[in-house]
Amino acid sequence: MTGTTPRTFGLLTALAAAGLFAAACGGGNSGGTTAAPPAAPTHLTDSKGDTIYLFAADHDGQSACAASCASYWPPVAAGTPLTGPAQGSVGAITRPDGSKQETLAGHPLYRYIGDKSAGQTNGQGLNLNGGLWWMVASDGTAITTTSSAPAGGYGGGSY
């Protein structure tokens, strides 16, 4: 090899080895990798993506949320399609006003007016209207974990 000194050859060899090492370790982005698909929702929603809640103050399958409470926490009408396979028993109760409300595993179901768009969970963990409000898992149980900041920036308030 004319014009190539042992020092230059050694430098080229080191660079080639570094390139092979980086490629073997995944140091480069070939563009062939894709992101993992988003996780399925961990809580029930309706067909519009609105979060479904239960009220901890409800007892014996009856709603304890009426009048002004129901204006902030509208009952889910009986027959409303829910996302995901509901693993608990789906049913309905008759509310004091005569309307039918959807239940899951014996819990009356609600939406929250503080959720302004699909996927928001601003009602999660709120202590309003005489009890705690929780998102509902597909088996009808309460999801009792809360985050430090509500999604969407709206924290509810006292009603």
Radius of gyration: 27 Å
Share of residues in helices: 10-25%
Q: Determine the strand fraction and express it as a percent band.
A: 15-25%
Estimate the global geometry from the Cα principal axes: globular
| Classification by helices and strands | alpha+beta
Distance between the termini: 85 Å
Helix segment tally: 2
Largest sheet: 4 strands, antiparallel
Unreliable stretches (pLDDT < 50, length at least 5) are 8-30, 148-159
Mean pLDDT: 78
Reading the helices and strands in chain order gives HEHEEEEEE
Total E-strand runs: 7
Question: What is shown here, in short?
Answer:
This protein is of the alpha+beta class and 159 residues long. It has two helices and seven strands. The termini are far apart.
Question: Any descriptors?
Answer:
single chain; 159 residues; alpha+beta; four-stranded antiparallel beta sheet; three-stranded antiparallel beta sheet; 2 helices; globular; disordered C terminus
What would your notes on this structure say?
This protein is an alpha+beta fold and 159 residues long. Helix content is 15%, strand content 16%. It contains two helices and seven strands, in the order αβαββββββ. The protein has helices spanning 6-24, 68-72; strands spanning 53-55, 90-94, 100-104, 107-108, 127-128, 131-136, 142-143. The strands form two sheets. Strands 1, 5, 6 and 7 form a four-stranded antiparallel β-sheet that branches. The protein has a three-stranded antiparallel β-sheet with strand order 2-3-4, with no helix packed on it. A hairpin with a 2-residue loop joins strand 5 (127-128) and strand 6 (131-136). The longest helix has 19 residues, at 6-24. The protein starts with 5 loop residues before the first helix and ends in a 16-residue tail after the last strand. The relative contact order is 0.18. Mean pLDDT is 78; it is low at 8-30 and 148-159.
